[in-house]
Sequence to fold (172 residues):
Amino acid sequence: MVEPDLKYCPQCNDEYRAEIEKCAACRIDLITGRQKIEIEEALRKKLESRTAELNPDDDLVALRRGPLPEMRHLAALLHGENIGTLLAGDEKTCGKSCCPTAYDLLVKREDGMEALHIIEDEHRRTTGLDGLDHSNADSVFNPEAGEACCPACGHSFPTTETACPDCGLSFG
Fold:
């Protein structure tokens, strides 16, 4: 239950006393309980306004292509968010048991961006990518510089080495 007089992290949902301004884990500004209640109410209304039912005249877009079990999992995930899905088999496969059939996951065009965000959040959650530090992801190995910062782990090392001594990422 959200307490209107407390503060909350909009990213990790941790709860804080009213005088705290930043989330200790995410290092972002907190929102008030009243703001969190408003956000949750808007999300609830948005979810209720969606219809998971598809009609023949709906404009559908393909979000993903993959094996049937994976596409069924994503379809169930989206159905839980009241987003209708259709799984369409790939006509290019031979149709025999020797060739795996690929399926397209289709949603209404109007639900496409929201569906992509839901799938992306699920991917981050199930792969553990949420907990990774991406602050060095844009680092570039420059052999002419005296020191490099590994984009994978953030370790600093001399550019005379062609691999990160901490994680082993090769730059050669």
In short: The radius of gyration is 23 Å.
